[in-house]
């Protein structure tokens, strides 16, 4: 399944959207205002893995769940989420979702839930969508704040689409952030080292 957002191709997030139900109403929060009120800071476009032929662009920081929901973790994201969409002029896109929990223990449990969902991502995708073949890799834990974990998922559909997604979950105190980068391709096209740097930056910028 392929959908286009602002001229770019969002990789397989539409799969999760099929079962997501009704999306919540979203409210834009300017990035400057979010920082001023003490909300977590989000990645800037230039902090994403560099694209060889395009700059990155970004939408506003927006309250609520992203629409469509990201694959594998979408149903776990609460209504208190904040998110920001990113895109290039080509078929590459990214997403950051951040959740501020009431306390550190709840944040720790939420981060563990997201990691559990990502660990079973490929298996669950193939179970839900029989015409999709999915494989994944775990790229390890990053030493930043309370830690971040990086995963890669390649999907190949019966209709010919081949997409690679890099996904990460990190935590700083009671704040959890999820980052996704995706484009057409295979594991060979995954910018793993660059995405790890992006993940470290995302966690460091939370507060």
How is this structure best described in words?
This protein is of the alpha+beta class and 207 residues long. It has a single domain (2-204), classed as Protein Transport Mog1p, Chain A (3-Layer(aba) Sandwich). It has helices at 13-17, 31-36, 104-119, 121-128, 192-204; strands spanning 2-5, 8-11, 27-29, 57-58, 61-63, 82-87, 92-100, 132-142, 148-157, 162-172, 175-184. Strands 3, 4, 5, 6, 7, 8, 9, 10 and 11 form a nine-stranded antiparallel beta sheet that branches. A two-stranded antiparallel sheet has the order 1-2. A hairpin with a 2-residue loop joins strand 10 and strand 11. The longest helix has 16 residues, at 104-119.
| Individual helix count | 5
Helix and strand element order: EEHEHEEEEHHEEEEH
Give the assembly state of these chains: single chain
Uncertain runs = 1-37
Based on secondary structure, the structural category is: alpha+beta
Amino-to-carboxy terminus distance: 37 Å
Q: What characterizes the major β-sheet?
A: 9 strands, antiparallel
CATH fold-level assignment? Protein Transport Mog1p, Chain A
Named at the architecture level, the CATH assignment is 3-Layer(aba) Sandwich
- What share of the residues does DSSP label as strand, in percent? 35-45%
* Mean pLDDT over all positions: 86
Number of domains: 1
User: Which descriptor suits the 3D outline?
Assistant: globular
Number of strands: 11
Estimated helix fraction:
10-25%
Whole-angstrom Rg: 16 Å
The first-level CATH class name:
Alpha Beta
């Amino acid at each position: 399944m392929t959908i286009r957002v602002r001229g770019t191709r969002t990789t397989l997030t539409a799969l999760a959207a099929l079962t997501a139900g009704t999306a919540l109403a979203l409210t834009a929060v300017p990035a400057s205002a979010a920082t001023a009120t003490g909300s977590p800071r989000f990645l800037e476009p230039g902090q994403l893995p560099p694209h060889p032929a395009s700059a990155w662009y970004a939408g506003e920081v927006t309250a609520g769940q992203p629409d469509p929901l990201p694959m594998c973790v979408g149903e776990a994201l609460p209504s208190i989420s904040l998110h920001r969409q990113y895109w290039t002029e080509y078929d590459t896109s990214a997403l950051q979702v951040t959740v501020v929990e009431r306390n550190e223990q709840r944040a720790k449990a939420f981060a563990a839930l997201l990691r559990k969902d990502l660990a079973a991502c490929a298996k669950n995708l193939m179970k839900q969508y029989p015409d999709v073949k999915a494989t994944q890799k775990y790229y390890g834990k990053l030493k930043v704040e309370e830690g971040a974990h990086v995963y890669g998922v390649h999907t190949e559909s019966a209709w010919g689409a081949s997409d690679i997604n890099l996904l990460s979950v990190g935590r700083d105190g009671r704040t959890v952030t999820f980052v996704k980068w995706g484009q057409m391709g295979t594991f060979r096209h995954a910018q793993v080292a660059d995405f790890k740097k992006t993940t470290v930056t995302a966690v460091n910028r939370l507060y």
